[in-house]
Design goal:
Blueprint (H helix, E strand, L loop, with lengths): L1 E9 L2 H4 L2 H15 L2 E10 L10 H13 L4 E4 L2 H4 L5 H13 L3 E4 L10 H29 L17 E7 L5 E4 L10 E7 L2 H15 L4 H10 L19 H8 L8 E3 L2 E2 L2 H6 L9 E2 L6 E3 L9 H7 L15 H4 L8 E3 L6 E5 L6 E5 H6 L8 E3 H15 L3 H48 L5 H26 L4 H16 L1 H7 L2 H11 E7 L4 E7 L11 H9 L8 E3 L1
Parallel strand pairs: 1-2, 1-3, 3-4, 12-16
Antiparallel strand pairs: 5-6, 5-7, 8-11, 9-10, 13-14, 14-15, 16-17, 17-18
Helix pairs in contact: 5-6, 7-11, 8-9, 15-16, 15-17, 15-20
């Protein structure tokens, strides 16, 4: 009797009740008929065949063979139980790898003769391809079923959103039961839906949306809920010890369309076959899908907030569904420098404040206003004075003819030399790509000669990743190349902006004036201890095309000046 090991595998728990015992019975029957004795079993139950290295029992089998196994054969039920790898060469590789260590892989049900002749080799390759294609078909069928409208009202798994509970429905009897977090439904017998959960949680969600509409930020909402002792969502292992709300939790609730009753899925894919179709790394776990591929089903679950309220909270900045400005602080604020002034001591933004008795208007440190004197001292800057200071600084530094002439000349010099620098960088990338390709070819030559080790495969994989990254960076650099014609367009745009600045500012609305200020002012820093204001002004405004080249302009504009790159500090 010849010694052998048996390898069995099944993909799901449902198959495990019959597939594993059946495979063992057939393998033992074949072994007895061919004078083999099974001395060891390796079982991968509930493991996909699309990857060899993600199967624990297979990894153990490989290690024992590499150390020197006592058996000379591994008996497998058929090619599909051996594996359904996406890479068709992987199945043959492992057979060859085991063979180099003196262990032969034998298939019970195969048209192959388990020999080294050409017919056996071709047969095994064809059967491996059929097994792989079968997995592809299953993957496509599962995805098609998951995306069907009939599944719209059911959960796709995971924990219920805050304010909801998971309810399992028996598809035969219609019986309903609540599921605790971490509890699974009965596969192929029950479906899970979301229903309204704890009334306190439902009321909290509605209150969070209303507080946001009233102008409160994420942190302010957190602070209110934490001070009132409202428990935060519990999420198993990620539960925080202090059980406090945080800004990211508030944001995730405000942006989750499930609270309007919508079921949105197919935002991500987890299939290796999808990765292969898109030319991505096959072992990539999560693949974001384009928004056009999302599936959105309205009114799949009970709504907690009205759809109009959700859309108002999540309206894009500057536009709402009715074409009006949203209820955002930036747009409704009557202060020209809203959001621009920062405190040098605590880092908080200054905010507008009107004195109740005198009526004087100032910018006041938000750290003191919102969090008290333990964070920052009271410090106010009169609104008219600081706004006039900023406008005078812009006119003095940017709108003077001599400064505009210097900026224009610097741009001309930049675009004169940009193409040559671009060519040098592209040439460097070309040389690096050629060098990496040479290294890959050298390793492939070793593999073709039969020298296959784990270190070679690891090095080969690393080099292929580096080559892909270099090619992407070269393509990105080439797409951002600056030509003289591009430079002329940008130069004219900058000159036109400065020429029309005064007229645009004086004739524009407050919102237009805010936008103009932000195109030239980078930031304003107020130091309450030194009683000093520093304004950082851009020499190049934020007009179309300038942002892409701002980094290249830094050195040119900074030469012979007290400025730091593209900003002037006053």
């Amino acid at each position: 009797m010849k010694l052998a090991a048996g390898y069995v595998r099944c993909s799901t728990d449902e198959q495990g009740a019959t597939s594993i015992p059946q495979q063992k019975a057939e393998i033992e029957k074949w072994a007895l008929a061919n004078q083999f004795q099974i001395v060891r079993w390796f079982e991968d139950e509930g493991r996909s065949g699309t990857s060899f290295e993600e199967r624990p029992a297979f990894r153990q089998l490989s290690k024992e063979i590499e150390r020197g196994a006592t058996f000379a054969s591994v008996i497998v039920y058929d090619e599909s139980r051996w594996g359904r790898s996406i890479n068709l060469r992987e199945s043959s590789y492992w057979k060859e790898h085991f063979g180099r260590h003196g262990v032969k892989v034998r298939l019970v049900y195969s048209n192959s003769k388990n020999g080294n002749d050409l017919g056996s080799l071709v047969t095994e390759v064809v059967e491996s391809a059929e097994a792989s294609e079968y997995s592809r078909k299953i993957s496509r069928s599962v995805r098609r079923g998951m995306l069907s409208p009939q599944q719209a009202c059911y959960s796709r798994g995971g924990t219920a959103p805050y304010g909801y509970k998971r309810v399992a429905i028996d598809m035969q009897t219609g019986e309903r039961k609540n599921l605790r977090d971490g509890t699974r439904s009965v596969t192929r017998q029950e479906k899970v839906v979301y229903e309204l959960g704890d009334p306190l949680h439902v009321a909290t969600v509605r209150r969070i949306f209303q507080m946001r509409i009233d102008g409160m930020g994420y942190v302010a909402i957190c602070d209110t809920l934490n001070r009132e002792g409202v428990p935060s969502p519990v999420r198993g292992k990620t539960t925080r010890k202090d059980n406090k709300w945080r800004g990211l939790t508030i944001r995730s609730i405000l942006h989750n369309a499930v609270y309007t009753g919508d079921n949105i899925y197919n935002r991500r894919s987890y299939s290796k076959f999808v990765a292969e179709e898109r030319g991505l790394e096959v072992d990539r776990v999560v693949i974001p899908n384009a928004e056009s591929e999302w599936r959105v089903y309205r009114n799949a679950f009970p709504a907690i907030v009205p759809r109009e309220l959700f859309e108002q909270v999540n309206a894009p900045i500057g536009v709402t569904s009715d074409g009006t400005k949203p209820n955002q602080h930036y747009y409704k604020s009557s202060y020209l420098l809203t959001g621009l002034i920062k405190c040098a001591h605590c880092g908080h933004t200054f905010q507008g404040s009107r004195h109740a008795k005198t009526g004087s208007v100032s910018y006041v440190c938000g750290g003191h206003i919102n969090k008290g004197k333990s964070v920052c001292k009271w410090f106010a800057v009169k609104k008219d004075q600081i706004e006039q200071f900023i406008m005078n600084s812009i006119k003095t530094l940017l709108l003077e003819p001599e400064m505009q002439r210097q900026i224009e000349q610097s741009l001309i010099e930049l675009f004169d030399r940009a193409p040559s620098e671009q060519e040098s960088k592209l040439l460097l990338y070309t040389e690096l790509i050629q060098d990496t390709e040479g290294k890959i070819q050298n390793l492939l030559a070793l593999v073709e000669k039969g020298t296959v080790t784990a270190s070679i495969l690891t090095r080969l994989e690393k080099l292929e990743g580096e080559l892909k990254k270099l090619r992407e960076e070269k393509a990105t650099l080439a797409s951002k190349s600056i030509t003289k014609s591009d430079g002329e367009v940008i130069r004219c745009a900058v000159a036109s902006f400065y020429k029309g600045f005064d007229a645009s500012f004086s004739q524009g609305s407050l919102l237009d004036q805010k936008e103009l200020i932000r195109k030239v002012v980078d930031k304003i820093i107020v130091d309450p201890h030194l009683r000093k204001v520093q304004c950082y002004i851009r020499r190049l405004p934020k007009v179309k095309g300038v942002e892409e080249i701002a980094g290249n302009v830094d050195n040119l504009l900074g030469a012979g000046s007290s400025a730091n790159g593209n900003r002037t500090r006053i």
